[in-house]
Amino acid sequence: MHYWDGRFVRSVTFTTKLFDQMQRYSAVQKAARVGVTHGKTIEKFGQIINTSRFKQAFANAKSNPDSKEDFWLNARLFRLLSLVGGSVPLSPFERAATRLKLGAMRYRYGIALHWVTIAPPEYGDLLLHRIAVLQRQRVWNDPDCVYVHSGCWFENLPANIRYDARARLAVSAQYPALSAQVFERRLKMLTNDIIRCPNSGATRVSTTYLGSGCGVYDRCAAFNAVIEL
């Protein structure tokens, strides 16, 4: 980014604000363009996600992310969601795809400044809702409670949490300190597994989604993060 006035060149806040506004403006423009040119597709997508069959398939995929049905559903959703924006690289499948994209950026532009916009969905984190349920029911030391054990899945949560996004957001707002810790954990997972993961010779040809050591950057001079409140 270039400025006509040198007084703002060293202002990190001003630079971040400009980038955030430009990114928001481009996202709104793209969403409006997609809504006009792919109106029928967006309408069909809205009808599909409100069916009971899709909700059941989505719940099964979340409880068993390594199944063939999950990859099938993931691929179908990506074809629709790619019209407006990309996905959040948190699953093993998305981590592998993101490594290749960031590696291509580094290969083309060299070691430079890269802006990566992420939005870790801490409001849907399983640990957050497990602790919230334990806090409400006061069953921390109950060995028969499913929320105490590590084998607790998303499908074990109450129905209003599983199927209502507003209820999950309400839990996140009710426990801000816990949500902040979950957000930090997700952010560390993203940076350690994708951006700052050690490089290897098989980075460009890696197709093992659960493989470790397939990083993106060979050398990293600095790493900065800006959290939008």
From TrEMBL:
All residue ranges annotated as the Helitron helicase-like domain in the record: 4-199
Pfam families linked: Helitron_like_N
Superkingdom: Eukaryota
Protein name, as recorded: Helitron helicase-like domain-containing protein
Species this protein is from: Phytophthora cactorum
